[in-house]
Write a structure and sequence with these properties.
The chain is an all-alpha fold. The chain contains 13 helices and no strands. The radius of gyration is 19 Å and the shape is globular.
Amino acid sequence: MRRFAALIETLDGTNKTTKKVAALTQYFKEAPKVDALWAVALLSHRRPSRPVTTTLMRTWAAELTKLPEWLFEESYHIVGDLAETIALLVQKEGTASPPSLKDCIEEIIALKPKTEEEKKRYILHQWKTLSHLERFVFNKILTGGFRIGVSQKLMTRALSKAVRVDETILAHRLMGQWSPQTTTFDQLLLHPILKIKFLSPIPFFWHTL
């Protein structure tokens, strides 16, 4: 989680494509494969389904920060991003080691069937124990995509440099329905297991078959 948070900070802090590719390449080379696979999924807009509503998150954040809801909402309106608003207003810098990216996302997925009170307890704990940047990334995973100027093509280019597989081949392997919950980094990108769902033609090809 800490390594991925640092990556997001770097990507968000530059407009230069070369720097984004370099940061992504380094991450894919150094991160554990289970974390790297989830990073590929997140940057491909394959985030887990949201376990809590943003309304609940706003209510809990206002409660934790001891702000009246109208003041929290006004802050949210000014900042324009809920994940960032919560990260800024929760004035806590956790000293505990954060979970890995894989563990964090699996915990978020496991929240879905739990009670509202259980969800609240878990999320408040994370807000209190994560650092500011980690809290921001945690919130982004909860609420939606990362708007950091990284297209799937750019990510695939960096991934190609990291694993030394042709970019076009990787782009094809990333197509179709896949999930880090049902495949591994090697199975998806390095030694793919051929399955029908990966070999389905692109829709506009049907007319040529």
